[in-house]
Amino acid sequence: VKNRGQNAITEKTVRKKKSASVSRCASLRLLAIASFLLRLRAPSEITIQITVCEIMSSATETVEEQQKLQIYPTSKAGVSPFWRDKYERDAKKYWDIFYKHHGDRFFKDRHYLDKEWNSYFSASGGKVILEVGCGAGNTIFPLIATYPHIFVYACDFSPRAVDLVKAHEEYTETRVCAFASDLTGDDLDKHISPSSVDIVTMIFVLSAVSPEKMPFVLQNIKRVLKPNGCILFRDYAVGDLAQERFSGKDQKISDNFYVRGDGTRAFYFSNEFLETLFGKEGFEVEEIGVCCKQVENRSRELVMNRRWVQATFRLSNGTKNPSEEQERKEVVDSTDIDISDGLAMEMFGASPSTHEMSEFKLRDSAFKIKLLSKEYQHTCKSTGLMLWESARFMASVLDRNPNIVSGKRVLELGCGCTGICSMVAARSANLVVATDADTKALALLTENITTNLESSLLGKLKTGVLEWGNKEHIEGIKGLASCGGFEVIIGTDVTYVAEAIIPLFETAKELMLRKVGEVEEEKPALILCHVFRRVDEPSLLSAASKFGFKLVDRWDMNSKESPVGNIVDRWFYENDLVAEIPSSALHILYFQME
Fold first, then answer.
1. How many Å apart are CA 335 and CA 430, to the nearest integer?
2. Beta strand spans in 142-224 (E)
3. Which of 138, 188, 344, 387 has the greatest number of CB atoms lying within 10 Å of its CB?
4. What is d(CA 554, CA 533) in angstroms, rounded to the nearest whole number?
């Protein structure tokens, strides 16, 4: 099995000898069962025919199925039920964060509305419009500027978006009434009189609602829409570039429904889905079509296909105006595209940076670490792109106690993209090798090392790919040590996956320097710092003993047990270090070879 240092355990081909051995064992077991069944059956009962080839084939298939062990689901698994519920429960929060970051800069003003739907807005008499999912007002303000006789109600379930609308220089209560409302649960008629709205605009908004709750939105709208009132609709279509970019990622919630990296969601509509959805709620389709637009980036030689559905729905007791219908049919050929520069960048793969800078301070120095932004961490499967509390803590310990690694060869397992323990250790150690199985994390680590480490120390800190249990990787890391092993091996938050514990200690044993010292603190050591999650201490100690590791000392700030030794306690003689501990749940286990 292939094992990852910090992240997931992924698949590795089992050696042919081992595979054949397991196959033979499985075959023998199946033959024994078949023989037993044959002895039991009566002559007149069913005949059991099993050949050795069939058994071997079955056994081989079983082995192949068991060769793959993964901590995280494959891309076909999609979003887990826990996260699916969280995205639904916190939808308002994610959109609030979106508008906090982007303000009114993300979407373009929709100046195409008068060209697309002029016949609806310019009809005689004052019109009352309801803009559902108003965002920062990109639909509202172009409308009131073009049609002076209309009044617009505007709602959004992000209070921050509503605040942006009210702060707009063109906002006036005589033309616009903006309010926060979640149409999947809040009643619109608390803000708008029943049967008083002529036109509802739904521009790229229904896609943000889970398909199960879309009927509730339409029922809510129906209560305030006049008889013969209509809905003007534009939203993402199946086959859009953005949907294609989701393929192969674990961001699928359900059919055609995905979560973006920032926690907001998007549904991709087909004509059939919309006709059924609106039809069940009493709406007739007046016009519907898929609009296609090729967007070209000549500098990058890319051509991207955008697809969206544009439709008009009217309450089924209304009557159609033939002249309007003819005009609306031409809308399908429109080339206007409703994206901002930010969206265009995302389309071309040059999406705004998903990284952020985090400052980590020590006594006399500070590190500026580039890592994955917090808003993207919940959909990221790589734990190595984040900075964990245990790494912060262990880096502080090494900073205050340089003697732990002074003059020694140090290996960090599962260092991730931050590598702060390795960078601190490089100040005192003879050599430090920072390893991880995630190549993306290592690429970012290299950037962080170059940015933060003094040029004189760069030669002492090396990086390498290491999947625990991978013999080729282990030999490569041994080569970096030059003398056959490491005197100190450090791992922070690398014990959270049960399946990874055995390969962890197996790898540590292979890379530990075989040296017997007279003083206990001078003997090679494996230091693990972590918060106990899915693997408890007895399980860790049991796995460690299988590979010749014994627990020499442990540390736990809240522990009432007597310490095993007196090594780790001496690291905390300075009271201010104890005060800096980020979590009372942190533990340190100090191992040596027996």
1. 64
2. 151-156, 176-180, 197-203
3. 188
4. 17
